[in-house]
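User: I've been going back and forth on whether these two constructs are worth ordering. Before I decide, could you fold them both?

Assistant: Sure. I'll take them in the order you sent them. The first construct and its structure tokens:
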Amino acid sequence: MSVSRDDVQHVAQLARLDFSEDEEAKMAEELSQILDYVDKLDELDTSGVPPMSHVLDVTNVFRPDEVEERIDRAEALEPAPEADDEYFRVPKVVG
């Protein structure tokens, strides 16, 4: 598949990029090579390959999600330097 300079200009405009004419020509050539490579991958028979979400055998490293007892609002606000009945009070940071 070939990518034209018009295609490169269109994508550059969408991405708000500015290329010189030489860069556009080079980009069109490089993108065409990438798409040609992807087309070659379509020729492979992957019918016997099981689907996977990651190339490496990754296991979940997070702890199990278990329901625990929650603390009440008053207990959460207790160590705060300043609080009202419902919220932590913090200094104003926006003028």
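The second construct, handled the same way:
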Amino acid sequence: MGEINTWLVGGGLAVGAIFAVVVQHFRFCLVAGTSNFLLINDSRQTVAFATALLVAITGVQLLEIFSIVEVADSSYRNSTLDWFGAGVGGIFFGIGATLAGGCAARTLVRTMEGSIHALIALLSFAIVAAVAQFGFLETLRLDITHATSLELKTDAGIASILSLPQWLVLAIVVVGLLFFIFKTSNNSNKKTMLIVGAIVGLLVVCSWYITGVLAQDEFEPTKPSAMTMSGPLARFGYIIISGRTPALSFAISFVIGTAIISFLLALATKQFKITPPQKGMTVMALLGGSLMGIGGIMAYGCNIGQGLSGISTLSLESLIAVFGMVTGIALTTKWMEQKA
């Protein structure tokens, strides 16, 4: 193991700790936002997620426009557009997250609160993700990617693909998000959820700044990155199936920080309680976690990695992945409603 980058590890732990507080206390979750909006017209979580996108996209685009962080060098903006993997993987992830009862972050937090259902989903997520990224499914996944992906003349940024000024695309997105937020913010918890979303968005911006500026070494430069769950969970799954421990990174430290603080908060607030799965729900947890695992790897990220960090770079691939996730959540929510 090489020398530990203090900014990457410490920054990941700190961002993960703050994120854990938000997710645990305010139930910040893409699944909750989409399903609550569809089923009971409750827009609180949707407004929070939209606000997070507004702050994250604005902040990260300004970091790129003013050449503070080389956002275009990140994996979200490479010149290979895997539209099939992003779209289908996003749908798989959305279906799985709904069956499991929560997105990647929410599943992790619920596990730290003592939910056996969430633990089963999390373990199946991690193991299947590891198999998809490092195991026997890797070859099949890469073959599909090579057969369907498009090689772009530019990077995968929306502005680059459309040959538009970056500031113009940013302005259009900001106006659209502001319209959506104020159009749907019609309840008494509006201000609270706006603040929750703003905090999450700022964490995304801080993550890019930490990895793109503070943690950079002129002798060993690395590509900037931000918050994500699926990749680190795949590496934790790899530990289970191989016994090999990966090197610490910002993303892995982020997940560790989220888990530790979620557990400590659950103990401090007396929310920690070992709760078994409801009758007949173990299969749903296994299936949901497995679909999240393979979907998160196919889509190159989960609702955090693609849904917040990737989208903040205004990557077309991230947009396709998130559209797939929301579609998967919506379809499965409607199916479960009809089944009930």
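Notes on the second construct follow. The CA atoms of residues 263 and 269 lie 10 Å apart. Strands lie at 80-81, 150-151.
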